[in-house]
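Exercise 4. Each item below gives a protein and its sequence. For each, produce the structure-token representation.

Item: IS110 family transposase (Thiolapillus brandeum).
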Amino acid sequence: MNPFSEYAAIIGIDWADRKHDLCLKTPDDDSLEYSVLEHKPEAIEDWANELRVRFEGKPVAICIESRKVPLIRNRSNHTVLPKQPLAP
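Answer:
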């Protein structure tokens, strides 16, 4: 069984101090979507809301190395973001 089958998408994040590079993959498509997220609370909030709408509230898996970033600390505000961090 695929451990990510319960997620609408898998998103890898390369977190940095000014911008964050994102790579998104959905289970039904082999292509990857690349994007950049600004390092601003409003940008992170808008992005999380866009995910909620796009994936109809289904959870997405966020793969990120550090637990000391706002996205992880504030994920309790978003039902679309998983509550269980993955080990790097």
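Check: The chain has a mean pLDDT of 80.
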